[in-house]
Design goal:
There is one protein chain. By secondary structure, the protein is an all-alpha fold. 86% of the residues lie in helices and 0% in strands. The N and C termini lie far apart (46 Å).
Length: 118
């Protein structure tokens, strides 16, 4: 899982950067932020401080920070035993992939249509 998450982070960042530089930078920042959220939540759980809600962790994954979420889970050994959390995380991952694929398809279809009339 760890190698998969690193590989996806690198591939998706490079792919986003080839399309638009700002997109790659935004993707990388979002994943670093998600990784940071997992670190902060793990430290809070150890010290019995106020925790970051699971909804926030899932929202970060759904917005595209799922490679960072997988890395955070693995590296910090955080939220690895809670089956309901893991199930929802994978649903967020699949939903993000579907949304990005649909948006890419619509964008490239629109882009192709725009230049076919030129």
């Amino acid at each position: 899982m760890n190698k998969f998450a690193w590989l996806m982070l690198v591939i998706l960042t490079l792919n986003s950067t080839l399309i638009e530089l700002w997109l790659g930078v935004a993707f990388l920042i979002l994943n670093l932020l998600t990784l940071g959220l997992y670190y902060i939540d793990k430290r809070a759980s150890i010290k019995s401080h106020q925790r970051i809600s699971e909804k926030t962790l899932h929202a970060a994954a759904l917005l595209g920070g799922w490679p960072g979420a997988l890395l955070g889970q693995h590296h910090f050994r955080h939220k690895t035993q809670k089956a309901s959390f893991i199930r929802i995380l994978w649903c967020c991952i699949l939903a993000n992939i579907v949304m990005v694929s649909a948006a890419s398809y619509l964008f490239y279809s629109w882009f192709k249509l725009q230049y076919s009339f030129a």
